[in-house]
Amino acid sequence: MDEFMQAAIAEAKQGLAEGGVPIGSVLVHQGKIIGRGHNRRVQSGSPILHGEMDALENAGRQPAKVYRECTIYTTLSPCCMCAGAIELYGIKKVVIGENQTFMGAEQRLREAGIEVEVRQDASCIDLMQNFIQQHPQLWHEDIGV
Amino acid sequence: MDEFMQAAIAEAKQGLAEGGVPIGSVLVHQGKIIGRGHNRRVQSGSPILHGEMDALENAGRQPAKVYRECTIYTTLSPCCMCAGAIELYGIKKVVIGENQTFMGAEQRLREAGIEVEVRQDASCIDLMQNFIQQHPQLWHEDIGV
């Protein structure tokens, strides 16, 4: 596995250790991580800080040109909010750990001309499956089901 | 003008007074404001805290049932990120101050079964027009153009 997906998984595991939803993300520009994040629903009482949003927030204000050269890695298929943020900034590519647990707005990303790569990574799947089994209500609250 | 659009405009004006992008929003449940917010790009260095996102964040974690009974008021047509968040939580209705300055993802909201009402309010239009004239770069950075 490449270092960037490993970093996203490390974020997800950190979230789990904090008692949160184990979804992590990193924003990568020219081979360097410029933002790391994980879901903070539990930790910050936040409905908007999904992993991808937290990574974007932690990268801070970037010029439009930078976003267009970025790849965002996320352990789980991005929901319509996160996909909307990725589309807003015209991020070039999205690398997704898995979409078996949840199929997000991938089609919308593709339609916006964004490259989408899905890994179906076993460790990403295990993280989510174990979490949902233990905290089904928290998962449904987070994804708005 | 109803009190809720007035409250959203008050948020936009507060943002302007702070040196920020003048877009405000309030989340209303059963006739009561449960979250207020305004764009915080400048104030917090945030790429994700648009007015609508800030109002959702400030409302905190709400049960799915509450979102489905909510109306969100925003002074400007919601971009694809904010529309994605509104769609994620299944907010019932969106009341938009104006969409002349910027036409957001309204069609996507309608397709998701969300009621959309556009007011073309003169004070909302003035706020944005004056701001863009004075800070064109900040506006383009915020909306990702």
From TrEMBL, chains A, B:
Ranges of residues in domain CMP/dCMP-type deaminase: 1-116
Superkingdom of the organism of origin: Bacteria
Protein name, as recorded: Nucleoside deaminase
Broad EC category: hydrolase
Major location (coarse): cytoplasm
Gene3D superfamilies, sorted: Cytidine Deaminase, domain 2
Molecular function terms from GO: diaminohydroxyphosphoribosylaminopyrimidine deaminase activity; tRNA-specific adenosine-34 deaminase activity; zinc ion binding
InterPro entries xrefs: APOBEC/CMP_deaminase_Zn-bd (IPR016192), CMP_dCMP_dom (IPR002125), Cytidine_deaminase-like (IPR016193)
Self-association and partners: Homodimer.
UniProt xrefs under CDD domains: nucleoside_deaminase
One Gene Ontology term, aspect cellular component: cytoplasm
Biological processes, Gene Ontology terms: nucleobase-containing small molecule metabolic process; pyrimidine-containing compound metabolic process
Pfam families associated with the record: dCMP_cyt_deam_1
Lineage: Bacteria, Pseudomonadati, Pseudomonadota, Gammaproteobacteria, Alteromonadales
Subcellular location: Cytoplasm
Pathway annotation from the record: Pyrimidine metabolism
Keywords: Cytoplasm, Hydrolase, Metal-binding, Zinc
Keyword Cytoplasm: yes
Cofactor needs: Zn(2+)
Species of provenance: Pseudidiomarina sp. PP-1MA
